[in-house]
Amino acid sequence: MILDHENWSKRTQRFQHVINSISEKEERLNFLSRYAIRFDYQTFKTSDFHGLTFPVKTSFRSASFAGKEVNFCHVKFLESVHFNQLTFHNNVMFLNTQFQGEIVTFDSSIFRETAHFGLSQFKAHASFSRAKFLKGASFVNIDGSQLKMKFYKAEFEDDFILTSVERNSNSVHIFECLDFSEARFESLFKLRAKLCDVVKFYGANFKLNSEFIVDQLITVPDFRETKFDRPPNLSRLFIKETPRIDRFLPNHDQEIVDKWRVLKRLAVDAGDHEKAGQFFANEMAAKRGTEITGFWPLFFSGIYYAFSNFGQSYFRPSAWLALFGTFFATLYYVLLPNALAGWDRILFSAEYSVRNLIPFLGSLFRFSARPVTQGFATGFEKNLSLINEAHGGIDLFIYLGVVEQLIGGILFFLLLLGLRNVFRMK
User: Fold this and answer.
1) Which residues, at least 6 apart from 333, have a Cβ–Cβ distance to it below 8 Å?
2) Is the pLDDT assigned to residue 144 strictly greater than 50?
3) 426: confidence class by pLDDT, cuts 50, 70, 90
């Protein structure tokens, strides 16, 4: 079969003119539904479809193409198109092709030579399920708002590259869903996208290097049951942060916990300690309500998060130390009797708070909680004795100091833990 380009263009222009003359959308859709182009099982003597337009649903199921390459460059498919169960023996060119229909399928097709889909535009759904790419597969600068691409059980014997076109607005999901479940990659895998919603690699198999570059992932990617012969590169995989308030709320989806756990393991295998720490913190947050249940476990895990982001922050315990130090200093100042006034009262409150809050600092100053009546070594001891005389004892200050020391010890431990995890100190 040979397509006459000039004749085809004239006929499609006349058909589109008829379609455009129908003003009502519903009536226009009903008119289009009565027509379809079927090239099923056809043999094309020429494989040059460059620049043609297909105005209605089109099917090339089990068709065959002659020539050195199959050229669908700059072709417009205005409705759904199906290339299922095809074997492309030569290079396939879909450069700058516009798939404007709701569905595009290449299911169970075989690409024996390189497949080029660069700069192609997809409207909604594109499926390559169970397709086999025996040579390279290039999906460079793919364009599509809320695009869903499915590569379920697809096989790639050579390099696979999928990148999204650059957009200025972050409000558009370039990829609403990328599904590589149970796919097999024998060579290089590279994914680069600005914005994705759902990404699935459940049960996929990667033999060589794999690189995942996503500026923002809305949901947690699914790498469960995925096999990597070489650790993946996740350093530029950025997942949208869970709002802080949501981390305190119980999670009842165990799958989210499993996804974060797998990501943490992959980051550890790759030696990416920064990502491993981030994924661990998100795993701990997701475990609240699933693996961490009951009032007290949830309470302490909430404290662990609030004080240190599950051991991944040194700024938080530092800030809490400053906050509690100020709070207790203010409390001591309010509770002090009139035995001290002015700067003596302020300085004693601050020093007493700091000595209790920071572990071992009191011992460094050789501080004793019991006041003496004579032979004071420091002004601090003298002020403590004056407080004891005016107040009739210092038991209240001792008890408050014990509480502050416990808080300070916990925060200081979390500070050291955060420093170790952030800077990987051994």
Assistant:
1) 345, 346, 349
2) yes
3) very low
Is 277 domain-assigned? yes
Concatenated DSSP letters for 190-206? Answer: EEEEEEEEEEE-TT-EE
Lowest-pLDDT choice from 203-212, 319-328, 358-367: 358-367
Spell 122-131 as b/e; 16+ CB within 10 A means b.
Answer: bbbbbbbbbb
Place of tokens 């949901």: 219
Grouping H, G, I as helix, E, B as strand and the rest as coil, residue 292 is strand
Q: What is the CA radius of gyration of the chain?
A: 34
Please tell me the distance from the alpha carbon of residue 23 to that of residue 294, in angstroms, as a whole number.
Answer: 62
Query: Are the C-beta atoms of 134 and 112 separated by less than 8 Å?
Result: yes
288 and 370 inside one domain: no
Would you say residue 242 has pLDDT above 70?
yes
Q: How much of the chain, in percent, has pLDDT values that exceed 70?
A: 88
Two structure tokens written together for 329: 């200093």
Tell whether 222 and 337 lie within a shared domain: no
| Contact (CB, 8 A) for 183 and 204 | yes
Look at residue 20 and tell me if it is in a domain. Answer: no
Range of the domain at 334: 315-421
